[in-house]
Specification:
With 120 residues, this protein is mostly helical. It is built from four helices and four strands, in the order αββαααββ. It starts with 11 loop residues before the first helix and ends in an 8-residue tail after the last strand.
């Protein structure tokens, strides 16, 4: 008898329960991104044929979801963590940072709202 591990086994029920809900081969987030891109182009061009842009965009979304079903959820999570930090503290720290300070944003360069005091 061999004591080797046969590898990681994936139960079909576990995979089905952890997969995000999908429609037409893409997640709901991908459908929203597709609708947003298509409708914005339709509003900008005011041509009915612009709605056909949804087909190639849907194809790209299907390819991304075929690689990883949670691609768009992870992209949204990355945007909330990285882009939000970059936009709020870039002018103060000159880098994307999650600092401990409350920063006031405005037209002028950002500045701290209160001074930090270190207790010994």
């Amino acid at each position: 008898m061999s004591d080797r591990n046969p590898g990681l086994l994936a139960d079909a029920l576990f995979v089905g329960l952890t997969r995000p809900p999908m429609r037409f081969g893409v997640t709901f987030t991908a459908l929203l991104v597709n609708a947003l891109i298509t409708m914005e182009l339709f509003v900008l061009t005011k041509q009915l044929l612009t709605l056909l842009v949804a087909l190639p965009v849907h194809g790209v979304c299907m390819l991304a979801c075929a690689r990883d079903a949670r691609f768009f959820d992870l992209a949204m999570l990355w945007m909330r963590a990285r882009v939000g930090a970059f936009l709020t503290t870039f002018r103060f720290f000159r880098s994307a940072s999650l600092g401990p300070h409350r920063v006031m944003l405005g037209l002028r360069p950002a500045r701290r709202l209160e001074l930090l005091t270190v207790q010994a």
